[in-house]
Structures are given as structure tokens and as C-alpha cells.
Design brief:
single chain; six-stranded parallel β-sheet; alpha/beta; three-stranded parallel β-sheet; globular; about 220 residues
């Protein structure tokens, strides 16, 4: 399995607090059957992430994981705020694309989804990239499903946070989103091993097997 949304790089944003924390996160991932993680530091105005330094940090973490015998590969990525994406150069955009590919993890602005997100999805398409919409569970509103469906129609996919399928008060809405065909990727959105969401996808996959339309594709 691949975790496409994880703040595993140490001391960079609000994610892992140390290299030891990063290694511990990778151990949790390996125990869950995750063998690759896209490091997705926040690319937005309230975090001083220097994109040109990220590759070196990934290389250093992979070297430490190899030394520790942790069978997880860390790949490039970034969680790009919709308000920041247009200012990125072509080189920067390539450096934050997930796994060196065309997909960009796009973080919607706070509050209900709006037309501005659709414009950023279109902007990425014009630059030969496609958008993976991050953690829609933060944006539940009366028209969220319709807006997500429109974005999918425009070529985007949706990444839901795995842990929210397990939380009382959230699971019903998350499964309803899946039933509408609006969950394409699971990510942990983990930040540290010390608290919060774990680097774990399997329990959420088990919950998704309750969705009849998805079950044949999960086995």
C-alpha cells in the first residue's frame, strides 16, 4: 500500500518533530502493510517550507530508514494550498507532485468548498497536472457532494483521511461520501507518532468494505 498524504519529514512543518519521530511513524506504517509514503509537507503561506530542500530531507530520511531496517520508502510530494498553487514555478510544481508524477495533492481553503477550488483544479490541468483533493471531511456542507462530483467530472480525484472512517460522528458522513463514489484514495494525514492520526490505512479499508459498490474493488 501507498500512503499519499503524510507529514513524515521531521522539523519541516507541523509534522514529525524529530528524525526519531519520523522513523517511529514509518514503523507504524510498515506494520500496517504500507511500503511507500509520499512526504507531503504543507506548501502554504503560514509554513516556511523551502521546496528546493525537500528532496534532500527525503534522501536523509530514507537513508535512516535503511539503517534501521524499516521497509518503507519515502517518496516526494507536498500538500499544496489552493491559495498557493498558482504562484509555484514549473520546477516547484514538479518537485511537489506526488511520487514525481502528474498528481498534486491540493488542500482546499478553509470553509465550504467554493468556485475558487474549481479554478485551481482547472489551473493545474492547464499546466499538465491533475488534482487530488485533500481531506474533504473538513468541508462538509449542503452542497459538498455536488461540488466534489463536479471536480471529479473535471478530472480531479478525492483523498479521504483514513482515521475519520473510524470516528464516531464522522464515519456516517465518510461512508456516505464513499457510497456516492467520491472517495478514490485513502491517506493517513498523520503528523506524528505521539498523538493524533496514525500512519495506518487497513482499518479504514475494512470499513469501506461495508460499501457494496466498493467491496468488489477492494478484494
Amino acid at each position: 500500500m501507498i500512503d499519499l498524504h503524510c507529514h513524515i519529514l521531521p522539523g519541516l512543518d507541523d509534522g514529525a518533530r524529530s528524525l526519531d519521530d519520523s522513523v517511529a511513524m514509518a514503523r507504524v506504517a510498515a506494520a500496517d502493510g504500507i511500503d511507500a509514503i509520499c512526504a507531503t509537507p504543507h506548501i502554504r503561506h503560514d509554513h516556511d517550507v523551502r521546496i528546493h530542500e525537500v528532496a534532500g530531507r527525503i534522501e536523509a530520511l530514507n537513508a535512516r530508514l535503511a539503517e534501521e531496517g524499516v521497509p518503507v520508502a519515502v517518496l516526494q510530494g507536498g500538500e499544496v494550498a489552493e491559495t498557493a498553487v498558482e504562484a509555484l514555478s514549473e520546477e516547484e510544481l514538479a518537485r511537489v507532485a506526488l511520487g514525481s508524477g502528474r498528481w498534486v495533492l491540493l488542500e482546499p481553503a478553509p470553509g465550504p468548498l467554493s468556485d475558487s477550488l474549481a479554478r485551481r483544479v482547472e489551473h493545474l490541468a492547464e499546466r499538465n497536472h491533475r488534482a487530488l483533493i485533500a481531506h474533504p471531511e473538513r468541508h462538509f456542507s449542503a452542497d459538498m457532494f455536488d461540488r466534489l462530483a463536479g471536480l471529479v467530472g473535471d478530472g480531479a480525484l478525492v483523498q479521504a483521511t483514513a482515521d475519520f472512517f473510524l470516528r464516531e460522528g464522522m464515519a456516517v458522513g465518510m461512508l456516505a461520501m464513499a457510497e456516492r463514489g467520491l472517495v478514490h484514495v485513502l491517506g493517513s494525514d498523520a503528523h506524528t507518532v505521539r498523538a493524533g492520526r496514525p500512519v495506518r490505512l487497513t482499518p479504514a479499508l475494512e470499513r469501506l468494505r461495508q460499501v457494496d459498490s466498493l467491496a468488489p474493488h477492494l478484494d
